[in-house]
Write a structure and sequence with these properties.
repeat; 14% helix; Pectate Lyase C-like; 4 domains; ten-stranded parallel beta sheet; mainly beta; 21-stranded parallel beta sheet; 10 helices; Pectin_lyase_fold/virulence; secreted; Right handed beta helix domain-containing protein; 747 residues; 63 strands
């Protein structure tokens, strides 16, 4: 058995060429990068494993073979690969097509294909999927799906995430045995049909999943059993147990069993949006299910996170300080890292530190606890719960949102015509495009967005802030003379701007326009021009902090010069990946070139690419690089943002690399992934995690012998982490800061 390497500096430049050269039992290792139209047929037992970062298999035209990016025969293992763009003339281009044998898919990402995975009919074939993601797959005709399993022996899907397939199902299986455990199925705002469809019956086991049937779903049923074919598996049965199921679809149903001679057993589920009279159809035996409606006296006030989700896509495990599982649930306790909710009915709790909590498209409750917390909100169904005097907190929302009690700041982000409504505190409200900002009570700071903004200060002494002339045409509805101020300090005007005529007050309609040079910046309703004076403006020195919250700036298609403010600044690069960008520095500036042009960034802390986040502010680059390398060495994956910051801060504050290595070895994630193991197994794990390859015999013997003669495992981990080979592998991801891939960027 041989190892074959694919990459720009490897023997094989394409995956197809390495597969063609491989023999039965070989392993093809693929370096991080994007491989365009690199399709192949695997005709023997083979392992294909991505190493060193995202390995993207991208189709940009109809597949030459008319089927899939990868076609598999025999026993095939696929790991750490991303499949996207698969199309075919028959409208069913797949990321992967399994023809026969056994296929194992681990930690892979399938998105924006006409079909994620498709299997052929083969009575002996088996498919196993774990820790993988399926998003936005489907042609849109209802016949293509996230995963489509035909008549095979069995399919097992665990610890995986399915979201927003196009018209088809998340998972369709005609297998004799279908086992689906500890996954998330999330329609979001899409038109996905069934979450899980088993049209031929068989033995179905659906346990410990989170299933959300969206309001726009193409079908009201979440789980469909035996409803399509006249020829069905004999001795069929269905078990649906211990799931959280939310159905927002009008006329929705949890389980529809269309097999009169097969029983569906539905036990111990938490069900939202249904009642006992409309949840099931067909032969169903239901016991101990909890229906979350307002008349149910037993309805709890929160739903905890299932253990498997904690270890999978919901949240990065590193930084979770409590793993005291009770049965299959755990409370989420963090040490200040980023957490992300499934989006339908979960309570995501933070820590006493500064947390970054993200909801999804549904009724999650985000509770940060003490600390200065950041909340990411995509729907006004997401609730934010904060205690009094528990830090200064900020919500970033894609939609109109009302600040709840005890939360200070609200930023409209990627929102057009959004309304930000304050509370009784001294709020900071930040607009986006054509926003309305309503401060309410308190001394509020209202910051105009990237286009004209409507501002309502409410009671209190309010500040109306203009950071650029792009907000020209804005309106202030209730400016209070002697109390409110208009802050123009970001425009770089001289202190004499009112006296020298740069700023002019001109009567207009029901009030006064304030002109700055040739820009009609803002209209003040019910205020006469003669009543205004320089005392109503802050021109060069504002006594109030103008930007106390993180700002988000979107790069345009031209060459932008972006300067961050006094707050943390994130720049979004639309449709531009980190892998395709050229990044250099010039003095204190970072220069990024790509499909959006060449941008110069100064005072920017984070850059959001389509494939992840570049972090520029975690500390000295040398120490950040050490933390990054150690993270990947210990856990075999790239770091989440919060966890990486914790490790970089520890090194900055004097913790030794060896002590940090020991902390990783003691972590629950390391123990769960690798266990105690003997010295040989430990060395094997380091070679795979750190160097992305199996050990050579001589090198393995040297390391095992060193452990036998007293070298600690922590020292060996640190040595591997700082090896020249690992430096070379991680350099592209750490040379300009730290790149965190999409699944761990915390947004």
């Amino acid at each position: 058995m041989a190892d074959l390497w694919v990459g720009a500096n490897e023997q094989y430049k394409t995956i197809a060429s390495a597969i063609k050269a491989s023999k039965t039992g070989d392993t093809v290792y693929v370096r991080a990068g994007t491989y365009i139209n690199d399709s192949a047929s695997i005709d023997h037992d083979l392992n294909v494993i991505g190493v060193g970062g995202p390995v993207v298999l991208k189709a940009t035209k109809w597949l030459d073979n008319g089927k899939a990016i990868l076609i598999t025969h025999g026993n095939v293992h696929l790991e750490n690969l991303e499949f996207t763009g698969a199309t075919a003339s028959a409208n069913n281009g797949e990321g992967v097509r399994m023809s026969d044998g056994h296929l194992e898919v681990v930690n892979c990402y399938f998105h924006d294909n006409e079909e994620g995975i498709l299997t052929g009919d083969n009575a002996d074939a088996t498919l196993v999927i774990s820790n993988s993601r399926f998003e936005r797959n489907g042609f849109g005709d209802g016949y293509t799906h996230g995963v489509y399993v035909n008549h095979i022996a069995s399919v097992t899907v665990t610890d995986s995430y399915f979201a927003e397939q196009k018209e088809g199902h998340h998972l369709k299986s005609r297998a004799a045995v279908t086992v689906v455990t500890n996954n998330i199925f999330d329609d979001g705002n899409s038109t996905t049909s069934y979450s899980i469809d088993m049209p031929s019956g068989g033995v179905g086991v659906i346990k410990g999943n989170y299933i959300y049937q969206g309001a726009k779903s193409d079908n009201p049923v979440a789980i469909h059993f035996g409803g399509e074919q006249t020829t069905k598996w004999p001795n069929s049965s269905l078990t649906v147990e211990g799931n959280v199921i939310v159905n927002d679809r009008a006329g929705g149903m949890v389980v529809a069993n269309s097999m009169p001679d097969a029983l569906a057993t539905v036990d111990g589920n938490t069900i939202w949006g249904q009642t006992t009279t409309n949840a099931f159809n067909g032969p169903v035996a239901a016991h101990d299910n909890l229906f979350m409606n307002s008349t149910d006296p037993a309805a709890p006030t929160s739903v905890t996170v299932l253990k498997a989700w904690l270890a999978g896509w919901l949240v990065p495990v590193n930084g979770i300080s409590s793993h005291a599982y009770a049965n299959d649930i755990t409370a989420v306790t963090t040490t200040g890292v980023a957490l992300s909710g499934a989006g339908k009915g979960l309570v995501i709790s933070g820590s006493a530190l500064n947390d970054r909590l993200s909801g999804n498209y549904g009724p999650d409750t985000l509770a940060g606890g003490a600390g200065d917390d950041v909340y990411i909100v995509h729907t006004n169904k997401t609730l934010v719960a904060e205690a009094s005097n528990a830090g200064t907190d900020t919500i970033y929302s894609d939609v109109s949102y009302v600040l709840p009690s005890n939360v200070e700041n609200l930023v409209l982000n990627n929102s057009t015509w959004g309304i930000a409504t304050g509370n009784a505190l001294d709020n900071v409200l930040v607009g986006d495009k054509r926003s309305t900002l309503d401060g309410g009570a308190g001394d509020d700071t209202l910051i105009a967005g990237s286009t004209q903004t409507t501002m309502i200060g409410g009671t209190g002494d309010d500040a109306f802030v203009f950071r650029s002339y792009a907000a020209a045409g804005s309106v202030i509805n209730d400016f209070q003379l002697g109390h409110d101020r208009i802050d123009l300090t970001a425009l770089g005007l001289p202190a004499t701007a009112v006296g020298d005529g740069t700023i002019q007050f001109k009567a207009s309609g029901d009030g006064t326009d304030i002109w700055v040079g040739t820009s009609n910046l803002v209209h003040l309703k019910n205020i006469s021009a003669g009543a205004l004076s320089a005392a109503d403006l802050w021109v060069s020195n504002a006594p109030r902090e103008r930007m106390v919250v993180e700002q988000v700036i979107t790069s345009t298609s031209g060459n932008d010069n972006i300067v961050g403010g006094s707050a943390s600044t994130t720049v979004i690069m639309p449709n531009q990946s980190y892998a395709s960008s050229t990044i250099t520095t010039s003095g204190a500036s970072t220069i990024i070139s790509g499909v959006n042009g060449t941008d110069t960034l100064t005072g920017v802390q984070r850059v959001k690419f389509s494939d992840g986040m570049l972090l520029l502010d975690l500390g000295p680059k040398a120490l950040v690089g050490e933390a990054y390398r150690l993270y990947t060495a210990a856990l075999g994956r790239q770091p989440d943002e919060g966890g990486l910051k914790v490790q970089a801060d520890a090194l900055t504050n004097g913790t030794s690399l060896v002590q940090l290595a020991q902390n990783f070895l003691n972590s629950a994630e390391f123990v769960a992934r690798f266990g105690a193991g003997d010295s040989g197994a430990y060395v094997d794990a380091l070679y795979q995690n750190v160097l992305g390859r199996l050990p050579d015999a001589a090198g393995r013997a040297v390391q095992v012998d060193a452990l036998a003669h007293g070298l600690s495992r922590a020292n060996l981990l640190a040595n591997f982490s700082e090896s020249a080979e690992n430096h070379a592998l991680t350099a592209p991801l750490t040379v300009m800061g730290a790149f965190v891939p999409m699944q761990f960027d915390g947004v």
